[in-house]
Amino acid sequence: MEIIIEKKENNRSEILDKIVSLAKRRGFVFQSSEIYGGLNGCWDYGPLGVELLRNIKEEWWKWMTFRENIEGLDASILMHPKVWEASGHVENFTDPMVDCKQCKARFRIDILSEIINDKKKKKVLEELRNSIIEDSKLVDKFTDAFQTEDPFSTILEDQDLSMKLLQEINCPQCGNKGTFTSARQFNLMFKTFIGPVEDSGAVVYLRPETAQGIFVNFLNVQSSSRQKLPFGIAQLGKAFRNEINTKNFLFRTREFEQMEMQFFVKPTDDKKWYDYWKDERLQWYKNLGMSENKLRYHDHPKDKLAHYAKEATDIEYEFPFGWGEIEGIHNRTDFDLSRHEEFSGKSLKYFDEESKEKFIPYIIETSAGASRSFMAFLTDAYYEEEVKGEMRSVLRFHPKLAPIKAAILPLVNKDGMPEISEKIEKDLRKKFKVFYDDKGAVGRRYRRQDEAGTPFCITVDTQTLEDQTVTVRDRDSMEQVRVQIDNISLYLTDKISL
Ligand code: GAP
Predict the structure, then answer these.
(1) Is the pLDDT of residue 55 over 60?
(2) Best label site of 67, 196, 239, 297, fewest CB within 10 Å?
(3) CB count in 10 Å sphere of residue 90
(4) How far, in Å, from the CA of 328 to the mean position of ligand 1?
(5) Is 468 exposed, middle or buried (CB count within 10 Å of its CB: 0-12, 13-18, 19+)?
(6) Cα–Cα dist 43/29, whole Å
(7) Among 53, 258, 314, which residue has the most ligand 1 atoms within 8 Å of its CB, making it the best to mutate?
């Protein structure tokens, strides 16, 4: 039996590079269109990645929709352009950004603020204060900005002050000063055209969130499924955002998948259901083995709430680069349905048979990123350990998420072991994603499976020939138990469903 001698602590700065490299080497994630130099912000899921992603989505779907009060939906990606006017995306789904006139680099204002270090910020703010000292209106704005959590960003977001501040900043790319344009709003929705004519009347958008497909189908789903409040609609699917700065691997991409659920409630019950879904969603990540100490809520302060939200929290995961949102939970009030009622001219009111009242329900939204959760599960599972003086990389996925559930390994390629192994593989394949490996020393084959996150390795050895048992090696403890061949399927089912 192998014994863990020492568990190496992951170095935060190196770890992301190692995960990206493993993801490519083992076929989890490839850069999109790699042979053409790649397409920024787009990624392809390889043979192991597609299984992991499917398993995450499958677990989410089961957790959310295997309930009496949640229905599923799969709305189209392209929707009537008025949807995005009603939702506020045409007007508000923008990021302020600046261009460097010299080197043509483009920066989102908040990213620019992240790039500049604190010492430099202090110096630049001092220079700004000196340059506006004569203008009492600007001085007032400047002073007010210091009442906020991040004065530098607040000043950058103010039109009058940002013009001046930007003149004091050196471009992080070419180093020139005074070369920034003023900040401009940039809409993050991808535009395309429907039909053969590319004119303004034919503009449609690739959806930037799956939520709107649910809102506009609220009454269709409610009446066809005969649901009564409170009930929810869940949907999984692609979303697209023309992010200016894509970063940190899968964290911020231009094409990604969301797993959203909108829960329709009586306005007076909103707090109860908001709290319920907040707990329930965090529990989902924990149940799938995500480290509890790397998960937290970040409640939005009242003055930072989105225009449609009454209460909001993010579930955050501690990535190697710091804490980042993996899911948002919002009390969206009656904002969305009211807006769609207004813009479509169709009533979206619910008739409550008990009270005989008609009203617009409130919505509690749970909005998770499948791609971002993928990255969190992958990062969380990654360990480097020293075993008998040798390093092993291991992905400790929850068995439900593991891309391959078991590997079947004949100890040697003779004495009837391959035949028995092939039979086991054929039987297990009916139920599980399994892998057959007969290449190289068995220790190296174990390592390859550890790195792929395979929770169980089944080895056919000399004893198998005598008593029809195999060894089943556990990926994490590396302990081996002997199991009767006839019982392997049941054994795996029990272990995976834990
Ligand atoms: N309907 C609400 C909504 O879309 P959001 O906070 O913009 O809210 C929800 O997005 C989730 O979608 C995020 O928590 C994140 O997991 C994922 N997400 C958003 N933008 C993303 C991007 N550019 N790349 C990857 N995932 C993203």
Answers:
(1) yes
(2) 196
(3) 17
(4) 8
(5) exposed
(6) 7
(7) 258
**Distance between CA atoms of 223 and 349, rounded to whole angstroms?**
12
Is the model's pLDDT at 127 over the cut of 90? no
DSSP element (H, E) containing 197 = none
- Closest atom of ligand 1 to CA, residue 243: 23
Nearest CA residue ID for atom 20, ligand 1: 252
Q: Is 32 exposed, middle or buried (0-12, 13-18, 19+ CB in 10 A)?
A: middle
Q: Could you tell me the CA-to-CA distances from 170 to 33, 99, 116, 150, 372 in Å, in that order? A: 34, 12, 9, 20, 33
Beta bridge partners of 456: 406, 474
pLDDT at 27: 98
Ligand 1 pocket test, pick from 367, 371, 377, 378 with the greatest ligand atom count within 8 Å of Cβ, gives 367
Distance 374 CA to ligand 1 centre (A): 13
* Each residue's pLDDT tens digit, 367-395: 999 999 999 999 999 999 998 888 899 99
Q: Please give the Cα distance from 471 to 485 (Å, whole number).
A: 9
316 lines ligand 1 (CB under 6 A): no
Strand 456-460 to strand 406-410: parallel, antiparallel, or no bridges (unpaired)?
parallel
Would you state the structure tokens that stand for residue 287, as one six-digit string? 């149940």
Closest ligand 1 atom to 373 CA: 16
3-class SS at 32?
Answer: coil
Strand, helix or coil for residue 64: helix
Are residues 378 and 28 in contact, defined by beta-carbon separation less than 8 angstroms? Answer: yes
Where do we find the tokens 């989102």? 108
Structure tokens at 400: 């439900």
Token pair, residue 124, equals 């630049």
C-alpha 404 – ligand 1 centre gap (Å):
28
Residue 209 beta carbon below 6 angstroms from any ligand 1 atom = yes
Task: Name the residue among 251, 326, 314, 286 with its Cα closest to residue 19.
Answer: 251
Gap from CA of 335 to ligand 1 centroid (Å): 19
Q: Does the global pTM surpass 0.85? A: yes
Q: Give distance in angstroms: CA of 372 to centre of ligand 1.
A: 8
Tell whether ligand 1 has an atom less than 6 A from the beta carbon of residue 252.
yes
For residue 230, pLDDT over 80 is answered with yes
